Automatic annotation (TrEMBL):
Keywords: ATP-binding, Cell inner membrane, Cell membrane, Membrane, Nucleotide-binding, Translocase, Transport
KW Cell membrane (keyword) present: yes
Keyword Aminoacyl-tRNA synthetase: no
InterPro entries in the cross-refs: AAA+_ATPase (IPR003593), ABC_SmlMolc_Importer (IPR050093), ABC_transporter-like_ATP-bd (IPR003439), P-loop_NTPase (IPR027417)
The protein, known as: ATP-binding cassette domain-containing protein
Cross-referenced PROSITE patterns: ABC_TRANSPORTER_2 (PS50893)
Pfam families linked: ABC_tran (PF00005)
Domain spans labelled ABC transporter: 1-229
GO terms of molecular function: ATP binding; ATP hydrolysis activity
Lineage: Bacteria, Bacillati, Bacillota, Clostridia, Eubacteriales
Length: 342
């Protein structure tokens, strides 16, 4: 179990991170500059929090009240940096072996070279291997040290799409086999959803509370969480019992349950919007402003017919070639898919 409850000020930026995670990978999801990497550095011992406490499997890594601050080498925390931080003058084998216990270096290096399919490049230096091989080498080096937790700082950000998906699967399998706390920092909700079963949302330096991925997508609660979870349509709203008014669109939508009085906005996911017809539940008329072709569908930009000029557009996917700019259509969404947000 990894327990984090810390505060750290860097200039005008204030970090407040509070969460716990067990043996399943946790996604720390947030926009760039929100404090995700700062949190990892504090856990690893690279940065010192101003106050708070970090505990890993019952061992206190940091406690400001008790003046405990273990150095990085004593924390048993592996850190996969964005740029991998391999030793340039060492071979792949040497990069892995150097992290292992002295008496087991050759054995551990051979084992991890096989596991990560690096045997053919074992005697190469980092500059002689691909980005994907560099990442596998960096992860193998972390595992060679037999850490009690692994931190991953946007590990796929430097890779192209094809390689990213391939290595994402490899990382996911490695973390599942690791069976210890791991924290995966990302701003990509798709990556987070595929790789982690739990998520902690971070916004403007504040991270608190861990939720399941299913809960995040079904009920994001806040506008910022909905945006980070990939909700494409966000609009201001006023709760009216089981209905919610959308003044900027001039419509009302029914919800599955009474909306909380704190509701200030609605979220409508593209995947839940359906082509419909007049008279259907939660149906409203729109005009196509733009139809942008994608690989297997069209991305439609719509304006509700009753919308105010300053109202936001609505986005949804449709069958390729089905609709064009200027077309009129009816759109609907099931009440259980209307996300009420604060």
């Amino acid at each position: 179990m990894l327990s984090v409850d810390i505060q750290k000020r860097l200039g005008d930026f204030q970090l407040q991170a509070r969460f716990e995670t067990g043996d399943s990978p946790l996604a720390l999801l947030g926009a760039s500059g929100c404090g995700k990497s700062v949190t990892l550095r504090c856990i690893a011992g690279i940065l010192r929090p101003d106050q708070g406490k970090i505990v890993l499997n019952g061992r206190t890594l940091f406690d400001s009240a008790r003046h405990i601050d273990l150095p990085p080498q004593r924390r048993k925390v592996g850190y996969l940096f964005q740029q991998y931080a391999l030793f340039p003058n060492m071979t792949v084998r040497q990069n892995i072996a150097v992290a292992a216990e002295k008496g087991r270096r050759a054995e551990r290096a051979a084992e991890l070279l096989r596991r990560f399919h690096l045997e053919d490049v074992a005697e190469h230096r980092p500059r002689q291997i691909s980005g994907g091989q560099q990442q596998r080498t960096a992860l193998a080096r972390i595992l060679a040290s037999e850490p009690e937790a692994i931190l991953l700082d946007e590990p796929l950000s430097a890779l192209d799409l094809y390689l990213r998906r391939q290595l994402e699967e490899e990382l996911r399998c490695a973390l599942d086999a690791f069976c210890a706390p791991s924290v995966w920092v990302t701003h990509d909700q798709g990556e987070a959803c595929r790789s982690c079963r739990q998520v902690c949302i971070m916004e403007s330096g504040t991270a608190s509370g861990v939720r399941s991925m299913e809960d995040l997508f079904a009920d994001p609660i806040s506008v910022s969480a909905a945006r980070l979870s990939g909700c494409e349509n966000l609009v201001g709203a006023v709760p009216r019992g089981t209905e919610v008014q959308i003044p900027l669109w001039g419509i009302s939508l029914r919800c599955a349950a009474p909306a909380a009085q704190e509701t200030t906005a609605l979220g409508l996911r593209m995947q839940h919007l359906r082509l419909s017809r007049e008279g259907m539940e939660n149906a409203f008329a729109c005009r196509v402003v733009q139809s942008a072709p994608e690989a297997f569908s069209d991305l439609l930009t719509l304006r509700p017919l009753s919308a105010a000029p300053e109202g936001p557009m609505l986005h949804m996917e449709a069958e390729k070639g089905l609709l064009s700019a200027g077309d009129l259509l009816w759109v609907s969404i099931a009440p259980e898919h209307v996300l009420t947000l604060r």
